[in-house]
Design brief:
The chain has 529 residues and is α+β, with helices and mostly antiparallel strands. It is built from 19 helices and 19 strands. Bound molecules: flavin-adenine dinucleotide. Flavin-adenine dinucleotide binds next to β3, α7 and β10.
Length: 529
């Protein structure tokens, strides 16, 4: 069963090692844990449903609570404190397109807003209902999960949009294929959600972002059905897929989607290296990206993230040995960890590894122990569970991410980190702030910063800390000319910053486009723009 007020399955706990806890206590001070509300009491506290009955709509408070929030920091505060002031008035789980259309017409008759719900893993407030008098119907896509067609000749697969990562990969792998889309939320996020948020997976360097993989599909909108034909390329005017990518449930409901698939690779390795400094590491990854080296993943941690990750791994003796070894190889405290992914044919991977090893050496880099990359691979989806155990010990974690041209990567990182430290440092509180880049392009890179800080004494104070932090770092991103999101989307939390990126005319054009599919503004209002 999914946790109702945290990440992932109830059956999985990832506990910090004693050394990890000691490190956090030393870095931030003792955590202040909050008393969690119970599921039953929180469900009982929901306001009565304002929707009339319908055979496809469940108005049980328990199911409404399970679909009330996603995974953003404020979502967690609401759920953990039991203060869920807005929840859907009903949840429907349609099994086909006809039921989707029926639900949209029921919502129109009831004057209700509609929130499409994939896996509920949004981290920017995409699926939380707004306050107000309008009833809300959440449409959860969990029954639309079938592989309906695999065109092996064209390497195209069509799935129901509600299929989650593991089920989608299992269907493809059984036939020798992969989509290659692995966001850290892979185990619980869905194909429709990836498309609606313009998601990016950990191996986007090889397989592409979701916009490179999404070829066509079908949507039900308040104005009717939209079919996006699967064409290898087209010069027939603007590409309507771009309306759907990043539409965040504002335009309609994606019922099924066709994606490009690849043959399963023969070989795949991840390797960890250490480079002497951020500057040398950044130059190296830029050159690798611009030479279009066929790597599947690049992840360069800054010096603080490198130190923090090694400490958080909770193996102090092994970390001390590694530090000693790297010092002997001339690397001091400014060293940065670089993780690379090699995926492809067995010979190609062997050749690439040798070639890249030379490049790393030339940049003053050193290969790290295999155990580091193995631990990353094993924990690539599991580390998110640490958020649960750290929260119960009184520590909160949040992240922001942007993308900028190479020439502004370092200054943007510095501005984001300085803004976060200034915001979190009020009242003499300490924080851990660190950054990596993990999606690289010839013209630039993503910048992904993580903040670890103590929860405050009560939910209001915790939320106030987070609001200050979010505002300060988002303003820093805007000032640096970065996008307000490289991969998580806009939702409610980034909406105020979108006009800086799109401009007045751009926002007007987006709103007009949405209005032609949803003239009454029924679809997920308050998100995106
Ligand atoms: C621990 C963790 C790690 C994460 N790692 C990554 C990462 O590596 N890369 C990344 O890109 N993101 C990541 N995310 C963010 C999140 O997983 C993505 O935004 C994901 O694409 C959301 O998919 P979902 O199915 O959960 O959508 P939901 O959260 O259910 O919905 C997100 C938005 O999409 C809309 N939507 C969903 N399904 C449909 C549909 N069928 N039709 C129309 N609209 C729809 C919703 O209305 C909503 O606006 C992470 C989140 C967490 C919690």
């Amino acid at each position: 069963m999914r946790r109702w007020n945290g990440w992932g399955l109830e059956s999985i706990d990832v506990e910090p090692k004693p050394a990890t806890e000691a490190f956090l206590r030393g870095a931030l001070g003792p955590g202040r844990s909050m008393q969690d509300a119970t599921f039953v009491m929180t469900a009982e506290g929901l306001a009565d449903s304002r929707l009339s009955s319908h055979t496809l709509v469940d108005r049980d408070p328990r199911i409404r609570l399970l679909h009330a929030r996603g995974q953003s920091f404020p979502d967690w505060v609401d759920l953990r404190s039991g203060r869920v002031e807005t929840a859907p008035d009903g949840v429907a789980q349609p099994s086909n397109r006809a039921e989707l259309a029926e639900l949209l017409s029921f919502a129109a008759q009831a004057g209700a807003h509609v929130i499409p719900y994939g896996g509920g893993t949004s981290v920017v407030g995409h699926i939380s209902p707004n306050r107000g008098d309008t009833p809300v119907l959440t449409v959860a896509l969990g029954h639309l999960t079938e592989l309906t067609e695999l065109d092996e000749e064209s390497r195209l697969a069509t799935f129901g949009a509600g299929i989650r990562g593991p089920a989608l990969e299992a269907e493809l792998r059984a036939r020798g294929y992969t989509l290659g889309h692995f966001p850290q939320s892979f185990e619980h996020s869905t194909l429709g959600g990836w498309i609606a948020t313009r998601s990016s997976g950990q191996q986007s360097l090889r397989y592409g972002r979701i916009e490179d993989l999404f070829v066509g599909g079908h949507l039900e909108t308040p104005s009717g059905s939209l079919d996006l034909p699967c064409l290898p390329a087209s010069a027939a005017g603007p590409d309507l897929r771009q309306f759907v990518l990043g539409s965040e449930g504002r335009l309609g409901i994606i019922s099924d989607a066709t994606v490009r698939v690849s043959r399963l690779p023969e070989a795949e390795h991840f390797r960890a290296y250490f480079v002497p400094s951020w500057t040398s590491g950044l130059r190296l990854v830029r050159e690798l990206a611009q030479a279009r080296m066929p790597l599947s993943m690049v992840r360069l941690s800054n010096a603080t993230e490198t130190r923090t990750q090694l400490e958080l791994a909770g193996h102090p003796r092994a970390t001390a040995l590694l530090r000693g070894y790297l010092q002997l190889r001339g690397q001091g405290d400014e060293r940065c960890m670089l993780m690379l992914g090699f995926t492809g044919g067995a010979r190609e991977v062997r050749f690439l590894e040798r070639q890249v090893a030379w490049e790393v050496l030339a940049a003053g880099g050193v290969a790290g122990p295999r155990a580091i990359a193995d631990a990353w691979r094993r924990g690539r989806f599991r580390n998110a569970y640490l958020r649960n155990s750290l929260w119960s010990r009184g520590y909160g974690i949040d992240t922001v991410e942007t993308a900028v041209p190479w020439s502004r990567v370092t200054s943007t990182m510095n501005h984001i980190e300085a803004a976060a430290k200034a915001s979190l440092g009020q009242n003499d509180e300490r924080s851990l702030v660190f950054t990596h880049i993990s999606h690289v392009y010839p013209a630039g890179s993503s910048v992904y910063s993580t903040f670890v800080f103590r929860l405050a004494a009560d939910p209001d104070a915790t939320l106030a800390r987070w609001r200050r932090l979010k505002q300060t770092v988002s303003q820093a991103i805007v000032l640096c000319g970065g996008t307000i999101s490289h991969q998580h989307g806009v939702g409610a939390d980034h909406r105020a910053y979108l006009p800086a990126e799109k401009g007045k005319l751009g926002i007007h054009a987006l709103q007009s486009m949405l209005a032609s599919f949803d003239p009454d503004g029924r679809m997920n209002p308050g998100k995106l723009c």
